[in-house]
Amino acid sequence: MSAAEVKVSKAFILQNPPLAEIDLTLGSETSTFKLVEQDIPELKEGQFLVKTAYLSNDPAQRTWIQRDADAARGYIPPVRQGDIMNAIAIGKVVDSKSSNYSVGDLVLGLFRWREHSVQDEKPAAGLPVTKINAIPGIHPSIFLGAFGTTGLTAFFGLTDILKLEKGQSIVISGAAGAVGSIAVQFAKHVIGASKVVAISGTEEKVQWLKKLGADVSLNYKHPEFKKQLDDATEGFVDAYFDNVGGEILDHMLTRVKQHGRIAACGAISVYNSLDSTHLPNYAQIITNRLILQGFIVIDYLPRYAEGIAALSSALQAGKLDVKDGETLVQAKFEDIPKTWGILFEGGNTGKLVTQIASLD
Amino acid sequence: MSAAEVKVSKAFILQNPPLAEIDLTLGSETSTFKLVEQDIPELKEGQFLVKTAYLSNDPAQRTWIQRDADAARGYIPPVRQGDIMNAIAIGKVVDSKSSNYSVGDLVLGLFRWREHSVQDEKPAAGLPVTKINAIPGIHPSIFLGAFGTTGLTAFFGLTDILKLEKGQSIVISGAAGAVGSIAVQFAKHVIGASKVVAISGTEEKVQWLKKLGADVSLNYKHPEFKKQLDDATEGFVDAYFDNVGGEILDHMLTRVKQHGRIAACGAISVYNSLDSTHLPNYAQIITNRLILQGFIVIDYLPRYAEGIAALSSALQAGKLDVKDGETLVQAKFEDIPKTWGILFEGGNTGKLVTQIASLD
């Protein structure tokens, strides 16, 4: 399709901002999202048209759509009822009235859940669209994963929040997820952790994480899981990289060393629930002088180059397996919400990416 | 009574280590504590006999007696079934075979809930008994409060954990308690906080905290409390000094600034409950990049002199009112548990001290 033919774009708007449960079916009154078609405005000077190819699926997107989300308490503007759902994506410039962006450029930005979008070379708010250079032999979707926000989240979580050092021990939950699978490898093979305990939710993930370098790989659905975790953390661990929150976080409050650190990176176990963050072991934070620190990778924007350099050099040294670290789903546009829902069912291994168009 | 006559000592042993509720009545099967009489052994070389006069009542004592408390997860050895209840106390040396401690010395240590105790000048475990020098015009019990662990907890919590600076804003819960009432005054009058919001549980405490310097003083039992707290923290606050945990902590997760700090100092609201630490706002820790840090004042032992110097100089400059900062209860030995229970009913203003004997 040539750019001149592009007059309308499919898009998903937020129909029902959720309080707790999400409904990813389409066409009902309770559906969280609604499929619409929108006219694409003519390009003005300084604007360019992006065709979206790959959508990043991130648990954090769930927090962006929370009903009555307080804009002052988020790190990007919340998605309100009637807004197009937001998402980080990779696309290609297919038309341009900008001198900075040319037709054919590979670009990364918050392109939202829509086929085409008009972007400004100097946006009024937020960051400019990023041009990316393809790496030979590596799929461009790596810029949504290992070399994108998820890889950088793993890197800064381990090095800056947890201050993990060679010879220290760590537990990583959501370990087969996008962030977790990079964190496991980086902690073991680059930092040189004495022990990496990985927690995931299927036997297949458990095996994969062993292959990636986890010293102990546990399935939280195993009936003896807590006992296994206690055994794996005998003598306690220096750090806990938390991607799940809830019950596993609570149990880890009893397994982190005195003066140990917890990186609060995600809480996927409780995003779709009103009331499951329940921490009977809360007092352990006091008696064992734990530091629980929340973080969001965009705060590290000024240090992204440092992170990408560390990840690239790990990749080149063969210490980072990124090819298996992605679940790429080719989906019809209509199936974007359903595909995003895989995140909350634990259906992905590594980064979950939705491909809705080709970059050709 | 001369030392030679002291042959037996009353003591309270832990009869039923609690899981949740405590039972401070005496003489029943479910009583948490049991009154006993114990023989006092003859002094050996290097030992001395202490008569206990003032008992420190601390919410943290509740964590020391938790059933099945893990010794590796505490900061002092747990009190087991049959052990004498532990407590920080002030007493007087009434007999001595030590060259370091003389009859008449005023001493501070973990003398437990008993009338008399034999102490070693070089204990096999733990810290040696501290000799203290009375301050003219000030009751010696100040060394259990403003110049003891509670004042130092306020000092290190504000300066080291919260890193509170002149011009910043802070909320302090349990503000009429021993730690809280020092924290309010030190934050306002010494550090120079722009706004100190104090939270307590009675109208009398609310008024007292205003007198101590709180800019806003709130009663958490007021039906409009959360709304009042939101108004008092408009634009959000830099720091939260948490002495209570539970629901107020949860609400404060929504009221601390992005990248703000929370000092997890106490959780009195949940100590006697199995399941009330419920944090529906947990994800705010992530999205707002909060740091929640637990601490215990004994970690600052090497820096106590610094803390006492800062508190003394505040006292001399008239910036610290310590005379009203104490609830001194003269009690019969039998009433020690009941008096300790006042802590959990919010019955004390400032430090709660039980006097069981005179220092004369």
TrEMBL record, chains A, B:
The lineage of its organism: Eukaryota, Fungi, Dikarya, Basidiomycota, Agaricomycotina. It comes from the Eukaryota. CDD domains: PGDH (cd05288). InterPro entries: ADH-like_C, ADH_N_2, ER, GroES-like_sf, MDR_fam, NAD(P)-bd_dom_sf. One of its GO terms (molecular function) is oxidoreductase activity, acting on the CH-CH group of donors, NAD or NADP as acceptor. This is Enoyl reductase (ER) domain-containing protein. Keywords: Oxidoreductase. Residues 27-354 form the Enoyl reductase (ER) domain. Pfam families: ADH_N_2, ADH_zinc_N. It comes from Pterulicium gracile.
